[in-house]
Amino acid sequence: MVAQYERFSKIFVILMPFVWAISRAITLPIMPGSNVQVITLKPADTMTHFSGITAFFIGSNLLKFQTTFFILTFLINLAVIAINANRAGMLAFLNAFAIVSISKYKSGKIWKILTILIFIILLILFINPEIFEPIFSKIASIFVDNQERQGTKNYRLDWWTYIINYTIFGDYFWTGKGFGINLGVDAGFDPLGDGNVRSPHNGHISVLARTGVPGLVLWLLVQLSWAGTILLKFRQSSAKGQTKWAGVFLTLLAFWIASMTVTTFEVIIEGPTGGIWLWTMYGVGLAAIKLHKTHPEIMT
User: Fold this and answer.
1) Each residue of 52-72: pLDDT tens digit?
2) Which of 69, 125, 187, 274 could form a disulfide bond with 268, CB atoms 3.0-4.6 angstroms apart?
3) 46 CB-near residues (< 8 Å, 6+ apart)
4) Would you say the pTM of this structure is higher than 0.90?
5) What's the CA gap between 59 and 104, in Å, rounded?
6) Whose CA is closest to 248, among 223, 215, 281, 272?
C-alpha cells in the first residue's frame, strides 16, 4: 500500500495542475443523470491530498523524487490550486504544513521548500502585492468580518449555534435528532428550499445534531485516540531512527489534520470523496500501529 501511495503521489503532483486547469478552462461533458461535469474538483479535497503528499515527501525517503523536482511541482501546485482554493482547503493545508514543518524542522527538505517559498513570496510582494489579496482576504475572513464572505460564515455560525442549543443545552442532549431527518429543513436553514442542504457544513456538529452529546463524545474519542497514537508512534520511530516508519506516521497525521480541518467547514466525510479516504487512512493507521509493534523490520 505504501508503494501504491508513492505512485499515486507522483501522478497527483504532476497531473493535478493540468487537470485543474482543464476543468476550469473547458466545458466538459455532463455525467448522465446529473448536472456534474466529468471532471469536478473540490478545492478542499484536493488540498487535503496535497497535504498528505507533502508530508510523505518531507517525512521519509519513500517518495523517490529529486528534491528540486518535487519543490518545482510543489510550487506549481500551490500556484494553480492553492490560490484558487476556498477557505477550508487553504486552512487545511496550512495546518498540516505547519505540523510537518515543526515535526521535521531539522530536515533539509523543509528548509529548502521554505527558503524558496519565502523568496518567491517576497519577490511577488515587491513586484505586485495585489496578487495575494484574494488569499489574504480568504484567510482573514475566517477570523474577522468580511463583507464579501460574511454571509456564508454567519449562515454556518447561526446553524451551529442552533444545534448546540437544542443538544448541549436542550431536549436532544442524549439522542440528537437521528440520521433520517433533514437537518436543513428541520432547522429552517434550507436556503434554496429544495431540501438539498442536509448538513450544517461541519461534520463534528452534524454528529452532535444526529447523535447528541454521547455520540459526539464517542466521535471525538475515536478520532483523538487514533491521532494521539499515530503521533506517539511517529515520535517513537523518529527516536529509533526508523525514517520510513516515521514518514508513514507523519503522512497519516498530516492527512488526518487536513481532513479534520475541512470537516469543520465543509461536507466532506459524509460523501465518498472524503469518507472513503478518511476511513481508509484510519484503517491503514491501525495496521501501521500494529505492524510497527510486531514487524518493524518490514520498513527499514
Assistant:
1) 999 998 887 777 777 788 888
2) 274
3) 16, 20, 81, 85, 89
4) no
5) 7
6) 281
